[in-house]
Write the structure tokens for this entry.
Amino acid sequence: MAKRKHKAPKRKASWLVNTILAIICIIWFIPTLGLLISSVRPAADILQTGWWTVFPHRQWATEEQVKLPKDTDLRQPITVNGQTFSDDQLKAGVMQGDKRLVWENRRSRTVDVQDKKWSGMTLNFTTQNYETVLGGKQYKITQPDGTVKTEQGSGMGRSFWNTIAVVIPSTVIPIFIASFAAYAFAWLKFKGRRFFFVIVIALLVVPLQVALIPILRDYTALGLNGTYFGIWLAHTAFGLPLITYFMYNSISQLPRDLFESAYMDGATNFTIFSKLILPLSVPALASISIFQFLWVWNDYLVSLIFLGSQPEVQVLSMNIANMVGSRGSDWHLLTAAAFVSMLTPLAVFFALQKYFVRGLLGGSIKG
Amino acid sequence: MKRKLKKSSTMSLMMVLLFSVVMSACGGTTSNTATPEPAATGTDTTATATTGADMIKTAKVPAGSELEKALKGEYKGTKVTMYGPFVDADEQKFNASIKAFEDQTGIDIAYEGSKEFEATINVRVNGGNAPDIADFPQPGLLEGFANSGKVVDVSSFMDESYLKEQYKDSWLDMAKMKGEGGKELTAGVWARSSVKSLVWYNKKAFADAGYEVPKTWDEMMALTEQIAKDGDPAWSIGIESGTATGWPATDWIEDIMLRTTTPENYDKWLTGELPFTDPIVKNAVKKMSDIWFNKDYVYGGRSSIVTTNFGDSIQPLFTDPPKAWFNRQAGFIVSFIPEGVTADEYDWFPFPSIDEQYGTPAMISGDIYAMFNDRPEVRAVMEFFTTAESLQSWIQSGGVTPPMNGTPDDWFANDQERRMSQFVQEAKTIRFDGSDLMPSSVGAGTFWKGMTDYVSGTASLDEAMAEIQSGFKKQ
């Protein structure tokens, strides 16, 4: 009896939690679904109707048309089927009984009489957007001798590999350095340890934008502009404070006895680090990897400044931004491009997902 | 259970990875096969080579200039970096138009395009990483660099008489800026311009309806009223353009200003000397509102102006039957005309004269190429850009009006493009797009925003004008 009483509120609570979670999921899922549907619709369709109209829905369908006299004055009340309406009413659509009256063509003075009907699923889908995004656009260029040649633009393939070349070292290098630093800050005793740690924490609040011009000057002097090495360094430096702090939180919570016994057994600091710390902080490493990976993958500003947009080094985010054209006429390609660029981060996330939650919780429970 | 979970997550990872690799690989192969395409067709390369040789004949190359040396191949193997705002199709057209020059001289013009040009050129130049040549679509932006002495004076190696031969005086005047210490310099050379005072219409539908092209503002208003009576809104207007929303409205005001007041007043207006709150400017805005705020004249009514993209606003002209009849926009709008509409089906007329004494001025915009590093091969490239040949294939592909003299008529893609160039050449008054010359706090700031507020109805005329004028204090 007592047990039952105890269980009831718990079930209620989990029901509530699940509902809230479901709602949050739907809120997050709907825009993504819209993006996906838009990405497979033809550009002309996107311009005319929203993505949700591909699903069956009730809409006004024309049953018959009424032709008014050609000389009807549109600024006076207009008589249709014995009732008078204003022009504005006919523009927006007005009810006459259970039918709806709306202008079909004002110039020819035609009014549609409409009824609500179910429309089926629209299946007018195309892979054109994806083909253009991946294979490159085609440009018609007239040659000096008058012939028209079609140039094939480059697709996302090249910038995809460029991005990989930027992202992997930019994720591995700072995490590697920060783990060493975090171990030192957490467990080694040296002079000024607190002081240096405070400096690292303080750097968290410095916006990276203020560093752009000074660093660019140094890079120019060193010839690092537009090189992969330069951008690895930049991402490493900008990522270090947060990663160090994050790793410190996780490493400093390992039980002290562990190190003491290892030390007694004659382990050096390096052995302790590589044999004990690293395996124990895999969840933290995984979750901070996801953070850093996503940040660098989606980065636009840092690569814009230090890498530039020459095709040999151009990263995905820049490639996508340029895809819409100088005057933004090809915006319909963005949906498809967004999906293609999402694939890799998704793959990384799912691969490291089970560590992710553990890592997030890792710092929250003090032992 | 745990094992199973692990298995399924590895599976999903594999799938997604495989998918992305396949996707990128297929992207890679298509672009790979595409790259050798231009070179693979033997006929193509010979064609460009001969036109390259032709270039020496057609373009007037000053004797002893760096360009002459370059054409002889003296700077073979050098590289000139260039940075500018055109990307995508424009970038392709630019690269195609310089290809013959690159082939002949062996100079590699490495063009880098970015949509964030305006924001990043400052960082680049101040960071000591200036490109050899930068392409400024807004002379106002270049002026800052000229003032601080960062730009190389092109008249230091190009003769005044040579420049006069290549450009009309009004173009050269617009390139003159104050350098360090107030010394006047020619800050760059003009390439690629666009005519702005154009009203586009659907030629075929226009003829079918029996309308005539209006020559004056009054005729245009009468026709607008006529079209409204016939049952259609005459104008399709959209000023939405992302973060630059409002700029098409500023173009309207500038065009009306040129037609309702003197060019001198226009120039004063750009510097803030003639304030936006002046009756002259307000009168121009009211003229615009006569059309814009009349629900019978605008497709979708006033409220849709702010939310319609400027590029999409030309679409209603080409539906069948047309939903609207006029769209006032620069020559580049042809790239937004729906596919399948051929050049015979559309046309333009000049934004008509309002007051006879001011005529029908041409408002233009253009890109000025400025030079940041002084090396012989950079000079040669700059000299090349003063020739119409540097734009040849771009003119032939359409969408650009050459600012330099001596473009053969048969280069133009169609009659409309040729007439645009003629319109500029013959116009008595030529002025540059005002918002591009105003300080950017106004021209790319409060002017855009103030007009948007006014059109959407959140600000009254007086409030909007005061708001725009306040931008001059911020600079």
